[in-house]
Amino acid sequence: MLSVYTDFIRIRFLTMLAYRVNYYSGILIYSMNIGVYYFTYKAIYGDAGSIGGFTAAQMTTYVAVSWMARAFYFNNLDREISTDIRDGSIAIQMIRPYNYVLVKFMQGLGEGMFRFLLFMIPGMAIAMLLFPVTLPSDPVAWVGFLVMLFFSFLINTQINIITGLTAFFIENNEGMMRMKRVVVDLFSGLILPISLFPGWLGTIAQWMPFQAITYLPGSVFTGRVKGVGIWNVLGIQIIWLVVLLVPMIIIWRLARRRLFVQGG
């Protein structure tokens, strides 16, 4: 069975490779996003030494690595699952000799591997040429960041799967998927670092799983979190990974009992 699941990783990787031109344009779009944030923060900082615990140099690096990390952990599994449910193909998937949810994880991983090699790495190289991005000098920071980046993928994928599975109960979850994307981008720290949130909103964000997707890995990469602190924030990611498993498993079990097919 292990070889079956690894085949899903390989197939999704090769599928993404067939449409790689789309991702070359995506690198340019992400670079433009970084540029907009860079010049905006440059104007905001002015002569200020630091804002929200970030120096101007750290903020530039944070913005660049956050957007390029998104290139790795981002996927549309929620939309894929919702489509499977609406067109009835989920019924065929569920009688096959594998776990549907685990297959989606493997497909997401195959897409993530493609995005890491052909989107994130070249995109980060271009960002370094265009903007004053500072790479970590501590090997521990590199190891911590790469491990946390993988957990970012896992947590984001869990949230996407949970969102997609809600289509079993509300049939059309398009609005929920759009809301989820906005909430994740905002409270993960992609649009604005959580340390810049107002006090009450920052407190709320710290009790949500979204900070574990972007803000915590970005804080490690920029050097705001060092030494033992790296493993402490990794612990936060592990906790959220375990916590999110509970609703995902419960929703999947309830969904299998409730399945009905719309259309063909």
UniProtKB/TrEMBL annotation:
Signal peptide: none annotated. It holds the Pfam family ABC2_membrane_6. InterPro entries: ABC-2_transporter-like. The chain crosses the membrane at residues 21-39, 51-73, 114-135, 141-170, 182-208, 228-252. Keywords: Membrane, Transmembrane, Transmembrane helix. It comes from the Bacteria. PANTHER family: SLR1174 PROTEIN (PTHR36832:SF1), SLR1174 PROTEIN-RELATED (PTHR36832). This is Daunorubicin ABC transporter permease.
